[in-house]
Structures are given as C-alpha cells and as structure tokens.
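Why should sequence recovery work at all? Because a backbone constrains its sequence more than one might expect. Tight turns favour small or flexible residues, buried strands favour hydrophobic ones, and helices have their own preferences. The token representation captures these environments compactly. In the example below, the structure is given first.
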C-alpha cells in the first residue's frame, strides 16, 4: 500500500499502530541518531548535527582541505592524510566523552527494552555508536549470536538483542592485528592529542620476540571501534548470519526510528525485512478472512471503520524519499521519536505491563 502520512492528530491511525504493536510477536526495530538527540547527543545531518559541527570546527584552513565536508571525517579515506587522521582521533575521543556524560537514556531506548521484556522484540539494528541500548540492559555482544529466547531477558539465552551496524565507542580496535581493548587514561589522552595509542597485544608480542632474540614485529595503532564509510564491518559475517536468521523467523512488524535511511547498506537491509513482513502478511490475508486479519477496526462516529494494518512504520521528523520508499514503508509518522512512544503508551499501556511487574 502507498505510504500514509500520520501526524499527532491522526488518532485512528495512531491507535491502529498501537494495536499492531500490542498484537505483534516478532518486531524488528531499526534506529538512527534521532533516538539519541533528546539525551544530548547530536545527530549527523541536521543543522546542528555532527557533519556541520565538523565543518565549523575544522575549516579548510585547519584541516588542510583534507576534510571538505563533515562526512569526510567518517570516511575510511581520512587515514590517507595525517591531519585528517589526527582530527579523527581527537574528535571521536571528545564525542565519546560527551556520551559518557549522558545521564539517562531516552524513552525510545526504554521502549526497545520494553519490547524485549514483553517478548515482542525480535531484534534491534542500530546505526548508532553511542551504546545507550547497553545501559538499558540490552545485549549488544555479537558473539551471542542470533538465537533468541524472547521469554528470557538475561544473557546469554536471549542472544544479541541489538546489532550495532556501525560499531561502537566502548572499545578500541588495532589497525594491524584487529584485536580490541578497553580505554584507559593514557589511551584517552593520546587520542585527545590526535595520536593513535599503541596496541597492547602488538606491544607484548613484539617485546616477547625481542627478548627471545628474534626479529621484532610491527606494533599497530588503536582507533575507535567504529565502521567508517567505505569499510566493511569486521564482524560482517556474524551480522549476516543474524539477519538471515531474523528473515527466516518471520518478523511481523518493523518500526524505524530517527534515521534518514540514506546509507546504502541500511536501505538494503530495511527493504529485505519489509519484503518479508509484507509477504507474510499477504499470505495470512489470503488464508484468513479480511474481517479477521489484515484489517484494523476502530470506532469513528459510532461506526466501525476498517483500514490496512501498518506493518512497516517509519517514525521521524523528516520524510523518507517517496520515490525510494513508497512501496516499502506503510506509514510515516511525522513525530519526535519520544513523543511517538508516549502516544503508544497512552493508547496501549498493556505493552508496558510486564515491565511494570518486574
């Protein structure tokens, strides 16, 4: 069906979405920077977003023309220039510090946890690198795999609940051995100064070889463990297995929060999930009467009114390109993410029942 535009005054449609969330059993959630802005973390593309912040802080006179747009600071090509590399280290170190200062997650983060606690969350896929989902107790460790017991909230039986498509700021990754390690004061100080800290694993290996009278080995530098434009995710194979498992499990709804849907990899993923959801819904409608499945019935003016159930819902203050998404997204909800969550809670508080009992 064509994408419907929904505002805060479209009460019937909002009720239909709330009812669908309540009745769904395998919900996919896709999130972008828009779910974290209310916690004080900037998004990327807005007027006050990270891209414009980079441009204003590092004009060509400072960056030696190596960063002509804000997006350049998140491209793997930045490592070809020492100045842009140094700026990358210091900027990401500052961004991590700002994330650490966040006092609480947003209602949207808490809503994702609610879906997990009530057994409705199939998986959350996020473009964000802030790791705020982890503060809500959601598992972000890819090594937990795809297996999900939605009746269990604690790891490891729940599997990886949140797939961080673009990596995370919680750890550092060696550019030589690809090993990861934690931040410490010395490493933070080096990054703030625009320098890559030495990888402790590489240092240990090099020292052991030299002490044994052997030739030393290369010591790699550490970088924030995020995925830049033009890079493959270092655990891409694992993510591929998880997405395949989710497609096979038959998701029945997808909610997309706070993203421009412009990144190619995410676009492909969302379209694959949406196609699966729509195909499953079409199969159900073909085998069940239209009065029972595929329609939402609400009261308007004292008479029942039926409409198509929105199974793929996009919540964002800006629309997605209609030419690209008109056959994929069922409803664009023109609302702030947290305001949408509050509206759903008002209309279907039963979605939160299990959380309130815990």
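From this structural description, the recovered sequence reads:
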């Amino acid at each position: 069906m064509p994408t419907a535009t929904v505002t805060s005054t479209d009460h019937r449609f909002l009720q239909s979405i709330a009812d669908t969330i309540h009745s769904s059993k395998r919900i996919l959630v896709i999130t972008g920077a828009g779910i974290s802005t209310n916690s004080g973390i900037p998004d990327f593309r807005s007027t006050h977003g990270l891209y414009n912040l980079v441009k204003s802080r590092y004009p060509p006179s400072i960056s030696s023309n190596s960063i002509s747009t804000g997006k350049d600071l998140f491209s793997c090509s930045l490592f070809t220039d020492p100045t842009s590399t140094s700026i990358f280290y210091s900027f990401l170190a500052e961004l991590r510090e700002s994330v650490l200062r966040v006092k609480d997650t947003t209602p949207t983060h808490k809503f994702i946890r609610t879906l997990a606690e009530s057994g409705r969350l199939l998986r959350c896929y996020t473009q964000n690198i802030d790791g705020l989902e982890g503060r809500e107790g959601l598992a972000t460790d890819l090594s937990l795999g795809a297996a999900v017991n939605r009746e269990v909230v604690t790891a490891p039986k729940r599997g990886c609940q949140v797939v961080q498509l673009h990596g995370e700021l919680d750890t550092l990754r060696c550019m030589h051995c690809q090993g990861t390690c934690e931040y410490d004061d010395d490493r933070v100080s080096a990054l703030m100064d625009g320098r890559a800290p030495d990888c402790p694993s590489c240092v240990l290996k090099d020292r052991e070889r030299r002490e044994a009278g052997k030739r030393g080995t290369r010591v790699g530098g550490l970088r924030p463990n995020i995925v830049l434009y033009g890079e493959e995710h270092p655990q891409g194979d694992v993510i591929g297995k998880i997405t395949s498992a989710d497609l096979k499990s038959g998701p029945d709804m997808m909610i997309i929060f706070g993203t421009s849907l412009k990144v190619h990899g995410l676009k492909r993923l969302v379209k694959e999930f949406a196609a699966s959801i729509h195909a499953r819904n079409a199969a159900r409608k073909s085998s069940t009467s239209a009065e029972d499945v595929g329609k939402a019935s609400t009261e308007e003016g004292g008479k029942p009114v039926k409409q198509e159930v929105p199974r793929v819902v996009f919540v964002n203050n800006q629309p997605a390109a209609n030419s690209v998404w008109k056959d994929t997204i069922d409803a664009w909800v023109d609302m702030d993410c947290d305001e949408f969550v509050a509206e759903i809670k008002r209309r279907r508080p039963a979605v939160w029942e299990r959380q309130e009992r815990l």
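A few observations help interpret the result. Residues 90 and 192 are 4 Å apart (CA to CA).
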